[in-house]
Amino acid sequence: MQLAQTTLESIFVSKVRVKSLAYFVMNPSKEIHLRGAVREFSEEINAVRREFTRLEEAKLIVMETKGNRTYYKLNIYHPFVPELIGIFHKAFGLGGAFMESLKKIGDVEFALLTPSYTRGVPFSSQQIDFVVIGNIDLNILGEIVKRTEFENSREIHYMVMKSNEFILRKRRREQIILDLLLQNNVLLVGEQDQLVKV
Q1: Considering the entire predicted model, what is its pTM?
Q2: Which of 64, 105, 113, 192 gives 186 a disulfide partner, CB atoms 3.0 to 4.6 angstroms apart?
Q3: What pLDDT, in 10s, does the model give residues 136-160?
């Protein structure tokens, strides 16, 4: 995760901008006011204000006044948001923790976060946040999920399959697998065309 954060700071120039984008992208339905962001990011108010102004000018966040407070929220309709969601979920949260431990987890063919996790939007009646396909160490994966659940105060619903089980379930056209393939997932490991083709 440290390498990913350093890379993002190099790309986005400002540490406060990375923290701001990470907050909005990882919490797409949450709004925050300036002083709340200062506390959340542990940064100076002028630095946070400057980055919020830049993000608003880029139309990545939108501003709304309620009473005497101004709140900021991710503009989910911005055309760059899907890509930003993918980038930041590979560096922070469950995706970042998973990528950091990838070598210890085992032979991972595919790993993906669903819109249920990344956007808070379930695709079907069966809510699945995270899917891993391959031959993996369930204990290590379970620890990563547990730690992330504790940090985010949120239960994570995940599914693990071996490659042959995934292929079989796909050939049987099981609804849960078809739903999974139709979603706008964030692939942490693997390529979309390979996932569909397998």
Answers
A1: 0.83
A2: 113
A3: 999 999 999 999 999 988 899 999 9
